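User: I'll paste a sequence; please echo it back and then give the predicted structure.

Assistant: Echoing your sequence first, then the prediction.
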Amino acid sequence: MLVLTGPVARDEVTGHCDDLRGLLEVTGLGIVIVDVAGLGPPGLWAVELLARLELTARRAGVRIRLRNAGPALRALLDLVGLRFQLERQAEQGEPASGVEEAVQTADPAL
């Protein structure tokens, strides 16, 4: 997982892409989770950073999935035409992804 914090400055974009390349070389992942919760209010530098990270990942044959993308960031990405796979967040009162409830085999079917 790659965790981004903000606000993003123009000169930090290349460093984050280098971090992603290094992560991919070490892990050989097929999908990289990018946690964007710490980016703060989305702006054009955040959009540029995500676009360059996506390009870096695609060149390595990898996809990016965004975690904790707020509504404002999602709207801005839609506005500029960037489509990212979003990691589904559990709704309130819903179990987290991959968690199954136990079932008693003696329970009658409803």
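Residues 44-59 form the longest helix (16 residues). The mean pLDDT is 82.
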